[in-house]
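User: I need a structural model of YokE-like PH domain-containing protein from Flammeovirga agarivorans for a docking pre-check later this week. Nothing fancy, just the predicted structure tokens so I can convert them on my end. Input:
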Amino acid sequence: MSWKERFNELEIKTYDKKALVDLLEQVDLYLSNQQISDKNIVAGTWASLMLKPPFFGLMLLTDNSLYFVGVDQKTKKLESFEWMFSETEKIEKLEDSKLGITKAIDIFFDGKQIRWAGMKGFIPSSFILKLEKVWHT
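Assistant: Understood. Predicted structure tokens for YokE-like PH domain-containing protein:
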């Protein structure tokens, strides 16, 4: 199965936005070149990684890690990051109780904290449910 087909299965939508279509094509090429298997991906969503500088791209969930592939918004260079659950101290959701949504997630590892947020101000509940299932097993 191609990455493009897998992205469709994961319901990663481009909303006919040229920037999202272009980024998805870059991520597709990157993952193919890195020989990363789509079979290990449990869920995926668009995400903003709150680093300095910030990144925008795809957060992919596997059985044992969170894997981010995105663009440095300053240099426009594509990079990837991975957080293995075995090395992750905790994961916390930042929720908006009034709206009933998860706005962001903090990942704690090696005494550091990384925050990432979903596109349009929330992380899809389908991604959260799969993350909680994988993280707690």
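Before docking, keep this in mind: The chain has one domain: 3-135.
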